[in-house]
Every structure is written in C-alpha cells, then in structure tokens.
C-alpha cells in the first residue's frame, strides 16, 4: 500500500455519476465512497446499472455527469498512473485464443512487465496449478473465473474490481471463490465487486450498495441494513406441535398464522418464544428465519428480488 492511500483511507470517491443511453437513464446521480481495505459490493438485479457504474469508476466508460477518484487520482480521462495500482477482472471473452492457462497468464503478466515466475505463482495461488497446460476453452466456469482473477491480480494491484466474479458457477465453486476473495482482502487489498446474489453480498461484503433501476437505494453493512428493517423473526412450528390459539397466546408473539397447518409465529423476542416452545415440547421440525437482504430489497422496492 502507498502511504498516501493508507493515510487518506479512501480508495474510491464517486460523485454524481450519471450515464444515459438514448431514453434510458442507466445510472442516475450515483455517489459513494469506498475505504481502503474494504470489500465493497454493488448489488442489484439484471439491468440495475452495476456494470455501467463499475466501468465509469474504472475509467473505462465516460460518465455523462459526475466524477470519480481512485486512490486520490481522477479515473477519467484514462489515467496511466493508475494502471499499475488497479486490477480489473476480465470477462472470459477477453482471453487470447488457443492459449493454455499458464500462457494466458504469462501474456497478461508481460503487459505489466511482470515476469513468468510471478505469473506461475499466481496460477498456483488461485488453485490452477494442475490446469497450467489446459487451454482456456477447456476450463470449467469456476476455473475460468479463477484465471480471470489471476489476470487481474498478477501485477499485485492494491484496488481490484470484479464484475460478477461468481456468475454461472456451481455453489461449491462459488464458496471456494469467496475464500480466495477473502484471502486477497486479508492482505490489505480493496475489493469492489458487483453481484446479483443476495447471499454473496451478505456473506462477503463489508458494505453493500443496493441498486435498482440506476440508483443506489441503500448503502451500509449487510447486517445494519437488515437491522434497520426492524423485521420480526419468523418461527415455523411443524404441524400438530401447538395450536394456532396456543401459539398466539405465547408471551412475545406479535402474530401467529396457520399456513397449511404449519404455525408461523412472528416475534421480536425470539429467544423467549423459543424457550416457551421448548417447554411445550414443540421443537421437532421447527425452523427459524431471520430477515435477510431479500427482505430489505422487498421493503425498498415493494418487489420480490429477482436476480
Ligand atoms: N452500451 C449500451 N447501450 C445502450 N444501453 C445500454 C448499454 N449498456 C448498458 N445498457 C443498458 O443500461 C442498463 C444498465 O446496464 P448494466 O449492464 O449496467 O446493468 P447491470 O446491473 O450490470 O446488469 P447485469 O447484471 O445484467 O450485468 C440496462 O438496461 C442495459 O440494457
């Protein structure tokens, strides 16, 4: 990390970003800042404007209004001084054709003046050592994403942008990638990622901007967003464990409803209610569901979240 970044503590400062395509306002007056060392998520459904924001912030797309600084420097017009300090995950389509994973990464490394030994070390780091001689078109979705991440990291940037790094890969590969991203962050790198997965934002991001239709609706730590809802915990009691009237009468229950004989109890005092249900021997098959970012999105937009 440079002393300048460490001192300022601010990796990104985006102010009033706007992008219009014809009649469509793809990004509308978006402002946010990202602290050094954060994992910052931009979350929203398809078409919300996530990629457009990321490209303006990276200095790849010219904003119609607003501005952005990265590591204290303006990102537009394209700023050569920033290039060694930032990493941008490439889409698979940006790979060179017919190269093996090792050749691919060494080629990207050479563009930054990075030697083959460091490239090969990154291939190992992202878990692709055994695939070094495999051509990129033969890699699985998760392996392609790992290679794309290695290409973004091979020159050791302090600020890394990832556009939907876990899109279209299986759940186990996603979790492995989360571990990789966490380890990159643990070294002090700032990560900015877009995602349309609510659980990914919740599990990975220190703070998340929830977007819809070109605007940021809320921005905070995932747990703070959920807390801000003040939503009740819902307890699903299996059929025949208690009656609806019994459940409704338990101290601390806000509401009890019968949903096809499962009694759904809403409460803001879950430990007391659970203790009472335990005392009545009603725990078998019981499920507890706290609010999630999905509920936050529903609350903000009035619509169910559809990635
Ligand atoms: N070059 C372009 N010309 C016209 N419209 C565009 C262009 N790029 C993006 N758009 C539109 O702008 C809106 C925002 O697109 P953007 O790709 O930023 O969304 P996103 O949140 O990244 O979506 P996704 O998750 O599908 O990638 C969409 O309605 C999209 O169709």
Proportion of residues in extended strands = 25-35%
Overall mean pLDDT score? 92
Radius of gyration: 23 Å
Query: What's the helical proportion of residues?
Result: 25-40%
* Tally of domains: 2
Q: Structural class of the secondary structure composition?
A: alpha/beta
Q: For the record, give the distance between the C-alpha atoms at the N and C termini, rounded to a whole number.
A: 35 Å
Largest β-sheet summary: 6 strands, mixed
Order of strands side by side in the largest beta sheet?
A: 6-7-8-3-9-10
Number of strands: 14
CATH class of the largest domain: Alpha Beta
Helix-strand topology string: HEEEHEEEHHHEHEHEEHEHEEHEH
**Shape assignment:** globular
Question: Are there runs of 5+ residues with pLDDT below 50, and where?
Answer: 1-7
Quaternary structure of the protein: single chain
List all distinct small molecules, including ions and cofactors, that are bound in this structure: adenosine-5'-triphosphate
Describe the structure.
GO terms for molecular function: ATP binding; ATP hydrolysis activity. It is a peripheral membrane protein. It holds the Pfam family ABC_tran. There is one protein chain. This protein is 34% helix and 27% strand. It is of the alpha/beta class. It has 2 domains: 219 residues, Rossmann fold, CATH 3.40.50.300; 59 residues, Alpha-Beta Plaits. Strands 6-7-8-3-9-10 form a 6-stranded mixed β-sheet, sandwiched between helices. Strands 2-1-4-5 form a 4-stranded antiparallel β-sheet. It has a 4-stranded antiparallel β-sheet with strand order 12-13-11-14. A hairpin with a 2-residue loop joins strand 1 and strand 2. Helix 3 packs across helix 4 and helix 8 crosses helix 11. It starts with a helix and ends in a 6-residue tail after the last helix. Adenosine-5'-triphosphate binds next to strand 2 and helix 2. The site of adenosine-5'-triphosphate has 12 residues, from strand 2 and helix 2.
């Amino acid at each position: 990390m440079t002393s300048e970044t460490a001192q300022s503590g601010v990796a990104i400062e985006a102010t009033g970003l706007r992008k219009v395509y014809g009649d469509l306002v793809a990004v509308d007056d978006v402002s946010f800042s990202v602290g050094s060392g954060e994992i910052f998520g931009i979350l929203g459904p398809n078409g919300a404007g996530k990629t457009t924001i990321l490209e303006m912030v990276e200095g790849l797309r010219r904003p119609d209004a607003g501005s952005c600084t990265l590591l204290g420097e303006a990102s537009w017009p394209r700023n050569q001084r920033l290039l060694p300090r930032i990493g941008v995950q490439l889409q698979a389509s940006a790979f060179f054709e017919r190269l093996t994973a090792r050749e691919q990464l060494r080629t990207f490394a050479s563009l930054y003046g990075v030697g083959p030994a460091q490239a090969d070390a990154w291939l190992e780091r992202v878990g692709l050592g055994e695939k070094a001689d495999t051509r990129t078109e033969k890699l699985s979705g998760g392996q392609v994403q790992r290679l794309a991440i290695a290409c973004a990291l091979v020159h050791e940037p302090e600020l890394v942008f990832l556009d939907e790094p876990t899109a279209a890969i299986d759940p186990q590969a996603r979790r492995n990638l989360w571990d990789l991203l966490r380890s990159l962050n643990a070294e002090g790198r700032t990560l900015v990622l877009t995602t349309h997965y609510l659980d990914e934002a919740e599990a990975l991001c220190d703070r998340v901007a929830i977007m819809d239709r070109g605007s940021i609706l809320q921005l905070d730590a995932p747990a703070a967003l959920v807390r801000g809802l003040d939503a009740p915990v819902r307890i699903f009691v299996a059929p025949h464990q208690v009656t609806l009237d019994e459940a409704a009468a338990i101290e601390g229950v806000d509401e009890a409803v019968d949903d096809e004989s499962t009694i759904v109890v809403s409460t803001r005092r879950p430990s007391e209610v659970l203790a009472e249900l335990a005392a009545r021997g009603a725990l078998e098959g019981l499920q507890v569901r706290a609010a999630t970012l999905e509920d936050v999105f529903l609350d903000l937009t009035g619509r169910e979240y559809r990635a």
